[in-house]
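Quick entry between incubations.
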Amino acid sequence: MSSTKTEDELRARVAALEQQLAAALGSAQPSTTAGLVKRTKIATMSSEVVDSNPYSRLMALKRMGIVDNYERIRDFTVAIVGVGGVGSVAAEMLTRCGIGKLLLFDYDKVELANMNRLFFRPDQSGFSKVQAAQETLQGINPDVTIETHNYNVTTVANFAHFVGRIKEGSLTGGPVDLVLSCVDNFEARMAINQACNEIGQTWFESGVSENAVSGHIQLLIPGETACFACAPPLVVASGIDEKTLKRDGVCAASLPTTMGIVAGFLIQNTLKYLLKFGTVSRYLGYNAMLDFFPSMEFRPNEQCTNFHCRRQQQLYQEKLALQPKADGAVAAVAEEAVVHEDDFGIELVSDSAEPAVAGHNANAGLVAGVHRAYDAPAPSHHADAAVTSEISEAASLDLEDLQKQFMAMNSK
Amino acid sequence: MVDDATKSTLAKIPLLKTRAGPRDGDAWILRLKEEYAALIKYVQNNKEADNDWFRLESNKDGTRWFGKCWFVHDLLKYEFDVEFDIPVTYPETAPELALPELDGKTAKMYREGKICLTDHFKPLWARNVPRFGIAHALALGLGPWLAVEIPDLVEKKLIVYNEPKASSSAASGSGQ
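Done. Structure below.
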């Protein structure tokens, strides 16, 4: 019958296709499931140059004399706050580099509106960014330990937990090696600044402007460099007249290019900081319109409004005072800070050239192409608005009475 | 720039004194008293000017605030839930005011319905720490935002007027 013949033909066709598929998949690896290669965990990093070793090209950095001991990357823990256009790419870079552990903080969800940026896929829409990121990253490199927190770090309810994880979130239960700020707003940056000032945690700030054509990274070592509250935020001039910049109807524009470039700078400097090679940039700006990259460094503001910044400055000065006597013995205590000075002599050259960030002379000492977002408040107590009344002595008032009085106004 | 009407509104709100955030214990209680005193004065001012436009209350610690705000456009009153947290870095950073039900309806909004403020808000706030409080954030941030965004959202038919449950008075039928 012709139907039987057709069936035989189909069976033969299926067998032939199966053979082709098997050939296409090559010498099917042991971890192959349904044709999808799944990377298994690797106990120790090998420098063996074979196609199946995901670390061979990284370990080659050692052979070429760029990095002394690349395997150390597995001991490090990095916390990334904000897993958006910059943070997600930064996380992927560290994951592919074989970082020991990542802590991811974000409270946003993946949306289709994010698809002009890298990393997230349309099918992840609706998932929390930290959960979606964890799945993708774990698939790329299962050797990395990933801890996620789906919350807003700026609120009272979450802040203490956030500080706790920075302090105790490393692979050994100690402080993380570096915090990366990849958030998109001033409030979250200030919360990270507060946390890091309180516990003396070194961190990198990063950002992309709302018009998507400039960005920056900045290293903050509490007490040693300016903190984020020492002066108004820096802006890399885009060369666009603010008055001609059309903002109607939108909050922010973004480009995968600018964000990818900033993430690249951020992780390049993270690797240099962790693995101790090259020079770690203290501040690096990026003007995409001119491909201009201003760089500089800032000393802390002695009158910083942040109490913990001033406290860290004092600690740092005390540490410096001890140093010349016995650099070998004290080095252990001062490890973080000493890395840069000893290796690169920044402290020597910067004393005179470095801009002192102070009070209201906002743009004093900044390199060309960078300015402050606004003037810092003058030391005096005059408000901008022509305010006539000040609050009377509130201390003598009763909070509950005030609350009752306010609530009573609601019904009138 | 900040318009003259907003400026004169701001000028009538008492300034605060205490530089303290919600993690500062007794100093925060003092700050909270100042916040309430300023809010009471601001609402009084609004009522006197026949421009009452929000109701607000806080949790016990004063760290989370919620209530209603409204805007009258073409004689119709549009009302929204408003909420915000007092951030740990307050008053260095202003509270992020949110209108959750408008989330996704306008581009001038960040995640969770947080309103996108003008370029002028943050510099003005920063220069007036710790003198500006919640009342100032409402007057300088939310008020002007509603004035610009609500007419636009109505025109685009992204929000529609809901008849009040009980009384339908002279306001109805005079739209457009």
